[in-house]
User: What shape does this take?
Amino acid sequence: MLIKIKRFYPSTSESKVEQFDVKNTNLLQAFNEIKHEQDNSLTYRCGCKSGVCGSCAVRVNGVERLACKTVIKENDLVEPLKNRPIIKDLVFDVSHETFLIKETKSFMEGNSDSTITQKDIKTIDRQSNCILCNSCYSSCPVYDVNKSFQGPFALSRALRYSKDKKMANNSLIIASVQTNGIWDCTLCGACTMVCPQGIDPKMDILQLQTLATQQGYSNPYMQSFDSNMGFDMSDMGFNPNGGF
Assistant: This one.
């Protein structure tokens, strides 16, 4: 079975699609087959080999997938994830993860004395299951054009800590996601569709918007519109006090 892999060569800063004939139908196993039997310079990430660590994420025919969980077919095109600097072949830079956690204040600070129940744990369980595969950033059209956008993973994590009853105060988190954060998301749902853990960043961001509104914040992009949705009706021959 022939598959195509888009490779990046750091020595020349060039990308090239190369074709390989493989026996394995599991993509990660096909990578191992290529590396051991055809080209030992093929570079990719893998860890747990069971869909838990997220390190083997790639794009297959333009869709973000975990290699260890992907069954391939003839002429599939495999590429590295988008929107991050490529180090070599299918390996990309993940250093932005630490920066985003710090920027959104998405960590435990100022523990409360609240009693935690199983229901409370369930409230934040799904967001806690993120495996940092970066598929959401690769699929995100906003991050594609604005690398300052905090993005799906960071905002889902922000919600997780905002709703954690062990947090004494979530106001710092809510304040941190106002700029290049919750109001910049287009709510397209692309991140939700590719998350291998079933996390729904779109809905998480909507929940953060609600929490922000409750704390007195508003969508800054709506402030430029007046009650007439940005139109001056007098320009259209309408007098609000006297009709047309």
DSSP finds nine helices and seven strands in the chain. The chain has a mean pLDDT of 89.
